[in-house]
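To assess whether the prediction recovers the assembly geometry, we first specified each molecular entity separately, as shown.
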Amino acid sequence: MGLLSDPSISTQSKLVDGLARHVRLVCYALYVAGVAWFFCLALPEFNHGTYLSENALSPGLVYPEIRIDANRLAIQLLEELHRERKDHLSTTPHAWIAAKMNEFGLETHTHNYTLRYPFGGGKEYHGKNIYGILRAPRIASTEGIVFAAPYRAASSVHTDISASVPLLLAFADFARRKNYWAKDLIFLVTEQEQLGMQAWLEAYHDGDRDLDVSKAYLRPGNLPARAGSLQAALNIEVQDLEIDHVDVRIEGLNGKLPNLDMFNLVQRIMAREGIASGYKQAPRKKRRHSQSPFEQNLRQMLTMLASQSSGVPNGNHGLFHRYRIDALTIAANRRATHATLKGSPGSAAVPLLKAIEGIARSLNNLLERFHQSFFFYVIVNNDRYISIGDYMPALVALVACAFVKAYLTWSTLPVTNAEQETPAGLVREQEQEEELEPDSEPDKFELPYGSVLIYLTATLLIGFLCNVLPLQQYFLEIPMGAAPLTTSVLSFLSLIGFILPFVVVLPPGGLELLHVAFLLIYGCALIVIGLLNFALGFFAAVLTVPLVISLETKEENSRSTLRNSVRLATLVMNPMMVIYVIVLAMTFYQFPELSLQKIMLRAATAAMDASAYGLIDSVIYGNWLYFVICTIFLPLWIICWTLALSKRRDYADYLDFDESPSTSPQPKVKTN
Amino acid sequence: MDPKFFKLLLLGGAVRFYFCRTPLAAMIGNRVEFATPLNSHKRMQEGIFLLQSGIDPYQGDLVHESPLILSALSGLFKNYPQFLPVFYIILDIFTAALLYTMSRRFVKQKQDQQNVERKEYAKDTEELQFSCLDKLDIPELVIVAYLFNPLTVMSCIGMTSTVISNLFLAFFLYCLVKGLLLPCLLVLAFETVRSFYPIVLIAPLLLVFSRSSIRRGVVISLLFIVSCLIVAAANFFVLNSWNFLDGTLGFIFYFRDLQPNIGLFWYFFTEMFEHFRTMFLITFQLNATVLYLVPLSIKLRKEPLLLATVLVALMAVFRAYPSLGDVGFYLALLPLWKRCWKFMAHGFVVFTFFLVTLSMMGALWHLWIYAGSANANFYFGATLAFSTGQIFLITDLLFAHVKREFCLFNGQKILIDGEEARIVLK
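The predicted structure of the complete assembly is given in tokenized form:
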């Protein structure tokens, strides 16, 4: 009961004093515990087998009815499409697709959209999606399921996935003959990768809304017909009708995932049809036997988090998540050699068609939106997962470091001579966000809340400018590409942040207070980011927490090697630098044959492109990464840099202030 | 009144004025943390519109503002809607000014009391006594804590009617300290008929005005009941119907709207079996009103204002539709107890709690309502933690007060066998 009704008169607890002397030890222990917990999650004892939670799905309850004729149709359509592609090298054969949809009896519509690209003087791009709706015989168009296939023009640099459209159409033809659909089926062919999908989704949901034309970069237009509220979506990317394996892609915008039930459903049905399928499925080859299951699991987890952390969806399905529609992509990869061909080439796509039919019929059974199962999970293996309750402790332990350090730093703050001020009292003041000005009386010394608050606001302002400046009209009118423009604005503002602590030196006590404020904001930011996108929060925490723990603002030994190395580490942790290093590492893996100088140069341009893409992504798709880096990480870095430098004012009355916090931890209350 | 006071008031007004012109204002007006079914601006608009169209606003289930307020504001809402934010800002500044004068008066009373008792105080307790500086410091802290607390600023720019409640509460406290019985009773009766929970504040009122005589106490209680009836009757004559009683008090007591908020009611009442509802309703309402009233009144009979502070705080935690504006109001009263701060051990923990839970609420609300991936449990977890933090704060304040009282008369350094003494609670 001592927590709330502590009977001791003095507020200074011995435990806190004892802990305060070993802040770093405690924090490092927490850090190690958090990371160790994460590693433990890869052990089979710590993760769980997947199961289907939503009974309505009942996968595999019905026999697939799709037959070889659908496959023949698909082959025929593919041949026709290949002929069409010769005439449409860099465009989509809209007429052909629309004609086919009409021929199969779908309610076919086209959707036009415009992208107003803001950079480099501004350009306009036009695009066109085609979709056909199969009205459900059993319901009044209140719910719908989307089957989407992206179309890539023949001149595209990406892998050819032209077989997706024939497959989709073949399935549409089959589905049209059935009378059991309880939800409208939408068959959608999009172009220009994710842009088309984004435009279609925006038009579907907000098409009737009047947009502020001057501000909107993507003008989605409106749709001529809709099919009720969308319950689920399946995106199909098929390289060829003869497939080797299916890769199920789930990571969506801002690291959101579809319901685990949906993933499980796809896995079950694929397994029933005998298709090798899985999350991050690689071509079947001889596995290295040296890899233990633990190592495999860990690798799987890390790759999943890595692809989630950027928040960029790895398929068109990711954009659905923003509208609360569970969606995933089944990416079927071409069979590499014909040597292992089992079935006859005439029936190669039958299993895949059967699988799509099975998925469609299961989704058709849904009585309400996916809500059972998990939305927050990490896939360890194709049939094992970690739920949020199991992986969150890892992040919490890391973030706890910041809070523990903040508390211990606070309780040992050097408040001198302030006979009337006590730490607990000061908290009250801070709690109410007061802008206290330091008292004018010389014998009284208060923590400089006002100046610290102003300093924090200034850093936040720099972060805010990063978001706003690159999109200002006068910057956009400069005839400069997006990448150099964004990079120059960002580096200019980082430079201001770099110089700031040299120019503005906080009054005595300010650094300590700033330190506490920094730790609190840092902890809060990581928790919130971790809730929204666990992968990003976790990686940021793993990367930065050790640095944050080793930060200190003490006056003595400020020139020691340790402090200098912390300064160096802080410099390296600059968000711009981190992006560059990540890009550098990726370039190095991709082009190991290049010389180091070339790699660094190439990485520099790639990093510049990356920051521009980040900005464009945030503007068009609503990706948060750019916003998070600019508005949260950059200001935090500036504060961190200030603390690492620990510039102090040379005050005459400074001497009676330097009662260092850890050597004589706060005897103040007792000495009174 | 020193010029700094006016400067602070102006600055507070300017901050509010700046923010009410940003898109933030509209956003705050829709956040469940600030706008509850009771105090939301939209519902007020609706009520005034219905009133003007001659429709009883309480027949639907949307309006829960008292008829007097609706009719008082209807002219402003109809004719000068563009000045509404300014109106709310002025009200808020009034509240701050009232709190300022109230705390000045309070500190002066404390110092007088101190001069009488000084001889009994122990030697080393200067820092526990109100010093002459406090006369300036404490009111300034109070006003700063009210004007620049983000919670009150947001509540004001969201134009929640919590601003009006806060004004009445501040006026109540002002009259309480000044010793003006009749205005005190009237404003308390008004607030009671409007939002039910302030009824508990009758306890500090009785303690102040009927210190020794029970007869006086009975008379005041009767007066209170009569003024409640008068207020109710005045409300009745606005619409000539008693519907408003069910629309305001009934709505609060029966907790009809389960919209999530920062309180503890909504989650519990969504999860509960329907046939237990009456029992839990009574339990929860008892908890919010009389449960702590008697013990606290007995313990704090010498400190009516502390009793009022704690009751206002408990009200903000346990009421049916709490909003962050209520929280901001009682936080502004804490500087009055600056001399107890020394013994408040959990200040930093509570601050961290507030910071983390408030920032988590935004994220979890997004995940629950927009992304659809989290659910009510996540959000409730954050609000529960927030309430826990508030309870920590209130308990801490109470204990700090008890310790201060003890140390004031017994000295701060009590050694028993060479070890520091501990207070044993028996």
